[in-house]
Structure formats: structure tokens, C-alpha cells
Amino acid sequence: MICAEQRVAANGTSTTGPVTLINQFRVPEGRDAEFHDLWERTSRYFTRQPGFRSLRLHRAVNDDAVYRWVNVATWNSEADFRAAHATEEFREVVTAPGWEAFPSSPVLFEVVTAVD
Amino acid sequence: MICAEQRVAANGTSTTGPVTLINQFRVPEGRDAEFHDLWERTSRYFTRQPGFRSLRLHRAVNDDAVYRWVNVATWNSEADFRAAHATEEFREVVTAPGWEAFPSSPVLFEVVTAVD
After folding, report:
1. Does pLDDT of A5 surpass 90?
2. CA nearest to B108, candidates B2, B9, B15
3. Out of B22, B57, B60, closest to residue A113 by CB
4. Torsion from C-alpha of B12, B14, B16, B22, nearest 10 degrees
5. Which of B8, B58, B78 is the closest to A20 by Cβ?
6. What is the pLDDT of residues B59-94, one digit of tens each?
7. Could you give the CA distance from residue A58 to residue A91 in angstroms, rounded to a whole number?
8. Which of the residues A45, B15, B89, B92 could staple to B78 if both were Cys, CB 3.0 to 4.6 A apart?
9. What pLDDT is stored for residue A16 in this prediction?
10. Are A20 and B56 in contact (CB under 8 A)?
11. Does the beta carbon of B111 lie under 8 angstroms from any beta carbon of chain A?
12. What is the ipTM, given to two decimal places?
């Protein structure tokens, strides 16, 4: 078992390597299908943007989690991630009717340790 | 861009496929090195357990996140994950001195949509 990647950037320096978005969603019980449909339509925008690498949309095994759905998406760089969030089309997809029911908590990360 | 895996289990049914742990940690500013050292020692236990697949330890790009460190780990099954959390060695590593300073919020998920 080895570390495939180990990189700790000093805080405060600009980030140039790959980044990972971890975005948690509050989804009321009984509205999973509605959320998932909306999310799929929105994610089609992001997966077409330059620098997009991958995503995994997760749903909690148990229903008692505060944030039952979590998207983990990787991008080539923070600059690519920011650019994808600065377009007119971005503003249109994230303000689509329905999203107000599913508050999210997006945070951007770097991978410090990876084990495969 | 295609979905490499798409699997939505009905709520309430038992989970037999792969699972993903997303574990968030509160780490006070200035204590990153102390947390990371403790986490590396603990993760050595988990990466040796049957059914462990992979992990990515993430640190937030910005310091204002509530949970600045997040571990995303995949396991072959929920049964493997539970077994790894039911041993005497598990109890020893997670009660090691130091952990009380870094509260965590672990939640178990299934992957619903994957795009690579």
C-alpha cells in the first residue's frame, strides 16, 4: 500500500494542480428523484467544460444524514473550475427552477494523500 | 461523456455493492501537521483491512471551510466496512491520544452516478 500522490501546498499559496469539489446537498425525504433529475441536467453543463475530469454523485446509505447527497468532482485546476463557474450558461443552470429546494455546501479541496 | 456506473438502490434495502465513506474533520488552524500525522497512523490500520479499496485525503483550498479536511474512502462492501470498524485494533487506533481535538463526521454512501 503506497501513496500514489502526496502533495501539501502551503496555505495561502495559489493552487495550480488538480482540485476536487465536494458539494453536499440537503434533500428532503421523498424528493430524491426530483433532486436527481435536476442534478443530472445541471451536471451536463459541467462535464462539457474545459478541465473537467470526473465526478461521483453519492447518496447516503442511511436516511438520517443531514446531507444525504454528495457530489465529488475533480478538475484539472482551480482556474478551470473557476472559469466553469463564471459563464452565463452557468448562471442559467444554477438558477433553474427547483434548486431552491436543495441547499448545497460546496467546498474546494486538494488531494493530500492518495492510497489505491 | 458517459456514465460509467449507475446504480440507485431502493432506500431501506441492504447494501451489497461498493460503498464510499466521506469523513469530514474539524481541524483548528495551525494544527494541520498534528492532524495529518495522527490521520496517517490511523489510516495504516484501515488500508490493511479486507475489502479496503482506496482513499483520498483532501484539504480545503481556503481556510474558511468548517471542515477543512475530508477523507473519501471506498470499500468493497458495507459488510467489509463494518467489519473493519468492529475490531479491538480499531478501538485502539480511534481512541489514540490526540483525536479528541479533531471531531469528525463520517457518513457512508453509495455511488449513484459516475462520469469519467
Report:
1. no
2. B15
3. B57
4. 60
5. B58
6. 999 988 999 999 999 999 999 999 999 999 999 999
7. 24
8. B15
9. 87
10. yes
11. yes
12. 0.87
Instruction: For residue A20, give the amino acid letter.
Output: T
The answer to whether the CB of B25 falls within 8 A of the CB of B68 is yes
Give the DSSP per-residue string, A38-100: HHHHHHHHHHTSTTEEEEEEEEESSTT-SS-EEEEEEES-HHHHHHHTSSHHHHHHHTSTTGG
CA of A26, closest CA in chain B: separation in Å? 14
Beta-bridge mates of residue B22: B72, B107
Q: Do B61 and A78 touch (CB under 8 A)?
A: yes
Residues of B in contact with A69 (CB under 8 A): 112
Contact present, A18 and A5 (Cβ < 8 Å): no
> What is chain A's alpha carbon radius of gyration, rounded to the nearest angstrom?
16
Interchain pair B22, A22: CB under 8 A: yes
Contacts of B59 in chain A (CB under 8 A): 8, 109-110, 112
**B113, B6 contact by CB (below 8 A):** yes
A84: closest CA of chain B, how far (Å): 17
Going through chain B in order, the beta strands assigned E by DSSP cover: 3-6, 19-25, 52-60, 69-75, 104-115
